[in-house]
Amino acid sequence: MAVMLDYIMSAMIFGVLALTVARMQVNINSTLYDNTFNLRVQGNAVALALQIEKDFVKMGFRVSPSSGNQITLADTTRITFNSDWLKNNSISSVAYQAGDSTETTGTPNVHDFPLYRNGLKQDWGLTNFRIAYYDSTESKLSTPLSAANRLRIKAIQVWFTIQSPEPVISNIDTTWPAVTWQKMMYPRNLNSSL
Questions:
Q1: pLDDT band at residue 46 under the 50/70/90 scheme
Q2: d(CA 105, CA 131)
Q3: Residue 181: pLDDT above 80?
Q4: Would the N or C end of the chain have less CB density within 10 A of its end CB?
């Protein structure tokens, strides 16, 4: 009888140890996925922020303010502006426009949407993209802006949120690693004299 109890106790101890090791493996995998997705999201946020800053700093370069063509469209989720990008007296435009969540396929995240830059689709994992416009007194201008109000723009605030395309599933919760970026930009060429 004592031998039988030893076998039962050994089986129970082995079961507890096996469950402990399995739970530890699940926690390690969850942490690994969380770190991997966080790194991807942060990399996407840095790349998108650099792209926006590089484009917006050149906004209105060598474009006459009186022409009204420095910024040709200004809304909360889209903007179109002109600049002499190549410094060759040839004016060209850049357009940013947020898509909607039905345009992104292949990711379990139902909230992400693409960003279009000059019509080219960019999948960053965006779940929020907003633009606000301010005049010389840093008063917010209501959107969409008319041609006359676009001439008043002196500063532009852009903010976005990027989430991972895949969730991190743990025993406690399901999370989507995310990064939010926000910046107020003062394009030096905007509404300045040539």
A1: very high
A2: 25
A3: yes
A4: N
In a domain, 192, yes or no: no
Structure token pair of residue 62: 């060598």
Question: Token digits for 116?
Answer: 């279009």
Q: Which amino acid is at 30?
A: S
Question: Does 38 reside within a domain?
Answer: yes
Copy the structure tokens of residue 54: 């590089």
Number of domains in the chain: 1
Residue 193 lies in a domain: no
Contact present, 118 and 51 (Cβ < 8 Å): no
For residue 50, the enclosing domain spans 2-185
Cα separation, 78 vs 143, in Å, equals: 11
Residue 79 lies inside a defined structural domain of this protein: yes
Rounded to whole angstroms, how far apart are CA atoms 17 and 69? 71
Global confidence as pTM: 0.84
Please give the pLDDT value at position 168.
79
- For the cut 80, the answer to whether the pLDDT of residue 192 exceeds it is no
Encoding tokens for residue 61? Answer: 């370069």
| Token pair of 124 as six digits | 């960053």
- Is residue 100 classed exposed, middle or buried when 0-12, 13-18 and 19+ CB atoms within 10 A define those classes? exposed
| pLDDT of 180 strictly over 90 | yes
Q: Specify the DSSP class assigned to residue 89.
A: S
